[in-house]
Amino acid sequence: MGDMAYLDNGATSFPKPESVYVAMDTFYRHHGVNPGRSGADAAMEAGSILDETRKELNSFFANPSPDYNRLIFTANATDSLNTCIQGMVRPGDHVVSTRLEHNSVLRPLHELANRGIITFDLVPFDGDGFIDPADVAAMIRPETRMVVVNHGSNVIGTVQDITAIGAICRERGVTFTVDAAQTAGCVPIDMAAMGIDLLAFTGHKSLLGPVGIGGVAVGPDVDPVSFRWGGTGVRSAQLTHLEQYPYRLEAGTLNTMGIAGLRAGLQWILEQGMDTIVAHEQDLSAKLCTGLSDMPGLKIYGAPADDRHTSVISVTLEGMNPEEIGMRLDIDHDIITRTGLQCAPLAHEGIGTGKLGTVRFSIGPLNQESDIDRVLTAMHELSHEAVAR
Predict the structure, then answer these.
(1) Higher pLDDT residue, 189 or 229?
(2) Rounded Cα gap, residues 51 and 13, in angstroms
(3) What per-residue confidence (pLDDT) applies to 228?
(4) What distance in Å separates the CA atoms of residue 323 and residue 254, rounded to the nearest whole number?
């Protein structure tokens, strides 16, 4: 990492805990064969790591299904959300979502609507970045198949009241899908208590694993259909894809090294304690927001560092566009951020930054106060330069 201050953990966490690097290297050196494709010891050991990771994640998310094979692996959160959405909707169905969503939800919905398969409505958010569960309820129709909601905004960090929305979906008999890309690993998730049917997550953000691995925790009351078919290493003489989990939603060779890294990330979180991690990130978020709040021309979006927000903070600076700010932070100060629309155009439209977007700072568990001090020094310099223009 060198002398870089990395504050783009909302895109991918970096650096990873040392144990993640060690676990991946050890796995591939000693167990890097195809799991479940033979009776060899190495293949059995690789398969065991997959099974144990499924069990641990199924428990971590409190999936009400005791069948840990309903924890299926995907390539990332986008893959997971496509598995949920395309796996559940049928021609003529209606979907309710929100204007806070990432394109990993918006684009599948628009694509399916453009093909004439579904219709959908998007719930607006208020001035503080929150969805009113009553607005979700008001949009549900008799033909509504699914409600899909972003748990934590990747633009302004607001964490939605998933439990209230889940209760509405249960009452109406509607499948509830939650996009936990930004919250899995840094916000407690209890599928049973929250009424979540399908939980889509990625491994490379707050779960501290590598890129290229994600998953879906499938609750006991839903059975998405697969839109991929192929090899499973099981019952190879059967010419149709298997219906049982996890094969129902998995096909081909899995990213076994990525799963080993994901498991190591999860174990690190459990060892540290999520409460400890969250408190650390909130302290750094509060320090950053306090330091930014008195800078001339600077506006903060989604600032409060409390349990209704992740450590994602977006800002704009009058007189200097976000792209220039991000470039200056990188080149002049070795600070890494994310600028622009962050793949969530309607969220930016809602906060009035739909043309150029924002500068997004996203704090992770391995950031330190020195990183925040460096950002504040750099932003102080840029804010005064912008005012002088």
Answers:
(1) 189
(2) 25
(3) 86
(4) 37
Closest CA relative to residue 358, chosen from 153, 183, 201: 153
Could you read off the pLDDT of 297-314 as tens digits, one per residue?
999 997 676 789 999 999
Domain 5-15+274-388 classified CATH 3.90.1150.10?
Answer: yes
Q: Quick check: bond before 224 cis, omega within 30?
A: no
Domains 5-15+274-388 and 18-271 share a fold: no
Report the percentage of the chain scoring pLDDT > 70.
96
> Does 387 score more than 90 pLDDT?
no
CATH of domain 18-271: 3.40.640.10
Kindly state the tokens that stand for 351. 């906060």
Convert the pLDDT of each residue in 127-178 to its tens digit.
999 999 999 999 999 999 999 999 999 999 999 999 999 999 999 999 999 9
Three-state DSSP string of 72-110: EEECCHHHHHHHHHHHHCCCCEEEEEECCCCHHHHHHHH
Domain ranges in the chain are 5-15+274-388, 18-271
Give residue 313's identity as a one-letter amino acid code: I
What is 145-161 written as a DSSP string?
Answer: EEEEEESB-TTT-BB--
Residue 328 host element (H or E): helix 322-333
Report the interhelical angle of 274-293 vs 369-388 (nearest 10°).
Answer: 20
Q: Which of 69, 63, 13 is nearest to 311 (CA)?
A: 13
Q: How far apart are CA 101 and CA 79, in angstroms?
A: 15
In the chain, DSSP finds a helix count (H) and a strand count (E) of 12, 13
Strand-pair category, 144-150 with 338-340:
unpaired
Concatenated DSSP letters of 331-375: HHH-EE-EEE-TT-HHHHHHHT-TTT-EEEEE--TT--HHHHHHH
